[in-house]
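I trust your eye. Have a critical look at both lines of this record:
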Amino acid sequence: MICRKATLLWQRAVLATLMIAAFNALGAEHATDHAAAFPPSLESYQDAEVTGLWDVLTGRIQKVPFNLWATILFLGAVVHTFLTHQFLHWAHLLKDRHKERLGRAGKDPESEACMPAQLLHFMGEVEAVFGIWVLPLCVLMIFNVGWDSTLNYLNHKVHYNEPLFVVVIMAIASTRPILNLAEEFLKKIAQLGGGSPAAWWLSILSVGPVLGSLITEPAAMTISALLLARQFYSLNPPAKLAYASLGLLFVNVSVGGVLTHFAAPPVLMVAGKWGWDTPYMFTHFGIEALTGIAISNTIYFLCFRNQFKKLADVAKSRPPAMRDERPVPFWVTLGHILFMGWTVLNAHYPVLMVGGFLFFLAFYEVTQDYQSNLVLRSPVLVGFFLAGLVIHGGLQQWWIEPVLSRLSEVPLMLGAIGLTAFNDNAAITYLATLVPGLTEGMKYAVVAGAVTGGGLTVIANAPNPAGQSILSKYFPDGISPLGLLVGALPATIVMTLCFLLMRGAAG
């Protein structure tokens, strides 16, 4: 059985490697000049002298009509993410009606699958949304700009390093040795508060997100979400507390990666070009982020302190969880840490990253006695989500750039928060590097806004789909985008005030 599982893992990994090799082989071909010109560069619009935002946008649509179609489809995908909850509801209704019909006909209710219900369930998978909307996008691209331009855009212009990185780091970070190590570390902190559900909640949401500045945000999100699932969500907290905790997790992870210049995607996009190093990030962003996390956690805890007392009673009434597991030797845990480190260091080199993952699978097979089942479905779905997002996001710069370039510092930060809710925050900061003449204050505003708004929606920050994938099973009808928005809003406001007021005090 173990050999069969290991063989299947190897086959999947080899298939992934072959796909990357094929992708690189295609990318090595030289695109035609016409194909390489899509999507048009911002300079090609030649509208630097146009002052009105509306005039700029309408002019760019007239020059490239496909801009409008790309944004309409992108907005359609965004709206779809807010309707996934309803799709799942419809799927459950159809499935129940199908079972009733089979029962009345004297058949086993489980004997036949309900294809419409399965289709609606697939439409309700948040991780599949942007991938689904890539299909009509590609069809429209082919009809509007041609096959060569479409292929060139998908092969040359869109970079899939981040989705691939998230798949690999999420798969490694969710393994038993890494999870046990993180749990033991946070357990020592939780014991300071008596080891209660509230103590675990505070320790995970305070320390876990900050780890994103060292082991990257996707890894911090994966570890924090898995520990919250084990120590908090398994106690079935009330819906309001469940959504508040989810929103707080997303916001804290988004801002928790700004203490260094190499771990958070929105920071990586600007650090090299703007000359920001780790001392700069910690003194200009890190102190504000740590302060905001502490204040937000305190406010949420005080608001739900009565519910935490009830959860403590639930935890006491339950027998201790029995884990039939062998202790993990130190050398096995060290091996996992080294593989995570290799993945982080080679995040921009897919061949080395995937090669390291292949060796990790071999290490996993050898140490099978100390491992739990390797989870690949969630990482692959999250990677699929992010791949669809970057494909759509790369076609939105025609309107994001002029919006950002026409705002002063405070409006720019608020605008970045709003735009981040509808696009990955790394895309927002990347587009900011394309805007000439940004002052140091404006650079601060756009990055602070991008990380602050990273918890408002599942698409606002690259690690969010990973957290949603892990925790969605604790929400009976799936995670509601509106519930997430409401849960994250107070923490977003706190972080906004911290970045604005502490920046002002420093100035």
In short: The chain has a mean pLDDT of 84. The CA atoms of residues 260 and 278 lie 4 Å apart. The chain has 25 helices and no strands. The first helix runs from residue 2 to 27.
